[in-house]
Design goal:
The structure holds 2 protein chains of 2 kinds. Chain A is of the alpha+beta class. Chain A is built from 15 helices and 12 strands. The longest helix of chain A is centred in the last third of the chain and has 38 residues, at 299-336. By secondary structure, chain B is of the alpha+beta class. In chain B, strands 3, 4, 5, 6, 7, 8 and 9 form a 7-stranded mixed β-sheet that branches. Chain B has a 4-stranded antiparallel β-sheet with strand order 2-10-1-11. A two-stranded antiparallel sheet of chain B has the order 12-13. The chains are: A alpha+beta, B alpha+beta.
Chain lengths: 385, 388
Amino acid sequence: MFIPLLVLRNAFRHKLRTALTIVGIVVAIVAFGLLRTIVDAWYAGANSSSSVRLVTRSAVSLVFSMPLTYGQKIRQVEGVTGVAWANWFGGIYISERNFFPQFAVSAPGYLDIYPEFVLTPEERKAFLADRSGAIAGRKLADKFGWKIGDQIPLRGTIYPGTWTFNLRGIFDGAEPSTDTSGMYFHFEYLNEAIRRQYPRRADQAGVFIEQLRDPDAAAAVSQAIDTTFRNSLSETLTETEKAFQLGFVAMSEAILAAIQAVSFVVIVIIMAVMANTMAMTARERYAEYATFKALGFGGGFVAALIFAESLGIALLGGLIGVALTFPLANAFASSVGAILTGFRVTEETLALQIGAALMVGVVAAALPAWRASRIRIVEGLRAIG
Amino acid sequence: MAIPLGYIARNLMARRLTTALTAGGMALVVYVFATVLMLAAGLEKTLVSTGQDDNVVVIRRGSVTEVQSGIDRSQAGIVDSLPDIAVAADGQRLVSREPVVLINLPKRATGKAANVVIRGVTAAGLTLRPQVHLIEGRAFRPGTSEVIAGRSIASGFQGAGVGETLRFASRDWVVVGVFDAGHSGFDSELWGDAEQMLQAFRRTGFSSMLFKLADPARFDAVKAELENDPRLTLEAKRETRFYADQSEALSRFISYLGTGISIIFSIGAIIGAMITMYASVAARVGEIGTLRALGFTRIAILTAFLAEALLLGLVGGVLGLAGASAMQAMSISTTNFQTFAEIAFSFSLTPGIVVASLAFALGMGFVGGVLPAARAARLRIVDALRAA
């Protein structure tokens, strides 16, 4: 009982210094957690993808589309149970700052392949019945305050002109990780207008999405699809939905790596601060440590005292930091709005936060503990802080 | 009378470990702060230097990037015949019709695919971009499946070096040369013959047009003429403006994220400075009493401790900047959200960033030092002397 009490009293002997150190650790741990969560959010699309879906795109790049007739041929490939297609619309809602993804999709096929988009039967019916209808995810609708029945004008960048859609449904995600930041409307609506204006660009799909009977057959089916179109005017590249999404993540890899590196820098910064605190604390107490030794305690005991104090402070800061991460992550997510989907603090992040706090505690105590354990009694008693 | 600076500096030297740890923490914060600003500046510099001020880019109205844009041959013909287009010494009209598309290529380092801009150019297109010159190999021969690669593409992507072959659009393309575009955005592009590109990608129209103005001052008149022509659905931008607009989102993202991170990190470093300065004051209470007894005023004490904190910040700032300036040798390659294409840019240290980083470091020292310094200045002579 005596020793824990001693450590506690020691830790709070300089109340201000300890409090400042704890605040520093809290800030660092929260920053570390937020940065990791930002990186995780990038991977949210890939993590929420389904293993029974494949995505086919033009082998050259996403900029090139494929003839709509490919849909029929893909449907005949063994193992494919459903096909849908989608075009990236890339419209601007009021101003360029309001970016959100918009797709022209082959409803109802698309909705069947994406069961995680949950619409009420009435909304689904209303959407399918209205050629210029659209559905939006909950996050997106909340961000702009859209209600069912609203008209949404989009200024086309890829497809010229202003397009107006009637919001017929707001869908929720079946899982918390489901992306509800997008807007979807009828491919036919877009295609008919394009056929009138730019006949050469009509009947073209940006990507095909296939539903598989058996996820284990993904590789074989992908190959079968790509073989079907080999040496044609537009060759295809089929991959699992996860690989497709990871392809997007890989494009921002340099930035993600930088954010990750920076998240470790903050831990190093706080390590320096904490090491400073422990070094000052130990230096002031050399005389006490010498006294312990004179009383017969070993060098290991003195080192353990310092480690316990350092770990205690670091862990306290770490726990407060973890507790604060949740409200701050929510505040951050709501301030950036619908852009970051799947902004969730994971268990792995929490474990890493606690791990980082403990590491800070150990590293900060190492040098002072080593010095204090080797101190010679006479020198120590003579030392002044 | 002020306390001499030498005395202040020696105080920092007396506690080397503490000073090093505190300044080290600040140095890391300044390092992050400076590198992020350098990155945003580097990106802007790259895209701004991509354009020439007397060149005009024409794209379809409403499209933001060249890849989204489309100009058919009849519209291109109308633009071609504008009287304001400059004529070179050999009588060539300085206007280029260019197809621009993205292709997916695997990177050398990771094997992961990224989008690369491939541009079809003409002889005039090369004249219009004087910053571009070949550093290896030769130019592509018009009418063949030959391409030349920008410096960053040649080194960064599989099959893009001289003598290597790229396969896209059902053809094999031989890379016959590498060009340097003076750290502009063209370093991240592949160039080939415009007509060959149109055939290979089965396009009938171009993506964008570029021309040089005979009289740069006539830009507004030419723009109005183009945009008011009922036969055209095009818009015109100065080339400098066009590329600067494309860097906006990414550079804003980098600088917002970076500034946010730096401010949060600086709280840690400020706390470090505060702990150090409070300890410094506590250890020298007797000394402060003596100084006061010798006749130094409270202001002099306050100034001395603040100066010590500022010096600590300055050391951190200089160390951090030194680390950041070493980053200038590196370059980074990532996807620009706006164009959806790969762009390479380097860290660029500008005088503005040096000033901002040092000010940031001094600011951290000041905030960390002001409370401890005030405590030191408030001490009463008798108490201070008794404490010693």
